[in-house]
């Protein structure tokens, strides 16, 4: 093994204890300020998923455990599967529920460093500069540190995305390629947005990474497979039903809209009919399958097939449709949304103007520099979802970038190092060394600001308002102290996940099915 490989491995490993040194003191303060009753709707719901799965398995109720996993229609079952072992190992609690986020924060810098080194190779100076850039961007990111203490999906999603892109960068290895696609599917089964962003990026990169002749051969075989009146009729029917429903809904709940199936039902029906069509025309589709390249077949099997299987349940299709097209009356303001995301990157994810400028410059360089297509794939993944999210009417929040920020920081480090590598050799090494040292010096000079920022962010930033807190306290005050719990709360405010989590943690004699807390319709 070459000396440089040993050094790079040691630097990647060193990022783990450094991340722990940053995260553990912050976590101690965050846990002290975050009782179960302070968690709002989604955080409390996620904290309870792993707890319920663990208790169902502990009490030997496998059917209840399976039912819980299959009932994750709004979010998939992956978070519960990841969270339950932490609840088993460290005891049922809110801190245990947030340990997947902590583990992701600790491992993400190492994964990002290894990915950046693969995409922008170089000598020891390049490795040291990459180490400083990754360590500074990750370990001095206020928002990444904040979400490391949340029992939510952002931190783990960001780590899994970087891991998927890291495996994809080595896609010439079939096992690494399949791991990348499988992680993309896992992201979908954790949160639909994450999976769509990851699988779309990996799918496009896979398609354009194949030779043009191979792509044409596959397209020709696929055209032969789908040729026929049945395909045209199916496509036309799906388009008519979906468009008709959307038009009628836009008219303000027209009575005719109720006579057409909903858009998610149309999507589910199209999926089922498509699968029937594939079976009915097995021979032509078999030819198309054989004409596909190994990478495309891996993408279909390891990336798309788990998603399609999950969507065979129509409730899951309705769930992801509601997530993606969450209705809101807010006006469409894409430029304001983009400005908000830029402000989040500057104010929440980077500590000062210099780190922010380096991150922006690095991501632009990663996109425009010729060379590694995997580097451009990484940079594209970190940017195009932001453009898409800017078209959403839902108001932007800083946490929306939590899933993308690790990939953005990895791409920025790779872009900066790749740019220095294109300079004349002595000048490039000197520029890289000076820039990395200046970056580290900037972070050191803002140490006091960092400590103040970390102290402020130790308090969970999405708590209930006073009405929500009062509703939680009132519900817990009326909860029975013995026997099963059945509570129906008023429609507003929606606090049932927090109430149920607090009861589940305080009443360890009850099985998950014995605690039924619901909201009035």
Characterise this structure:
There is one protein chain. The protein has 25 helices and two strands. The protein has 521 residues and is an all-alpha fold. The protein has a two-stranded parallel ribbon with strand order 1-2. The radius of gyration is 25 Å and the shape is globular. It starts with a helix and ends with a strand. The model has no long low-confidence stretch (mean pLDDT 88).
Characteristic terms for this protein:
single chain; 521 residues; mainly alpha; two-stranded parallel ribbon; globular
Layout: helices, strands, pairs:
Blueprint: H1 3-32, H2 41-58, H3 62-70, H4 78-90, H5 94-97, H6 99-119, H7 124-139, H8 142-147, H9 154-169, H10 174-188, H11 192-209, H12 212-226, H13 229-250, H14 263-280, H15 282-291, H16 294-310, H17 314-324, H18 334-349, H19 353-368, H20 373-389, H21 405-422, H22 425-445, H23 447-457, H24 466-478, E1 485-489, H25 496-506, E2 515-519
Helix pairs in contact: 1-6, 1-7, 2-3, 2-4, 2-25, 6-7, 6-9, 6-21, 7-21, 7-22, 9-10, 9-21, 10-11, 10-16, 11-16, 11-20, 12-15, 13-14, 14-17, 19-20, 19-21, 20-21, 21-22, 24-25
Specify Rg, calculated over alpha carbons.
25 Å
Give me the strand/helix succession: HHHHHHHHHHHHHHHHHHHHHHHHEHE
Arithmetic mean of pLDDT: 88
Number of extended strands: 2
Q: What oligomeric assembly is this protein in? A: single chain
- The number of helical runs is 25
What is the terminal-to-terminal distance?
Answer: 65 Å
Largest sheet geometry: 2 strands, parallel
Shape: globular
Estimated structural class: mainly alpha
| Beta-strand percent range | under 5%
Low-confidence stretches: none
Strand order of the largest sheet: 1-2
Residues in helices, as a percent range: over 70%
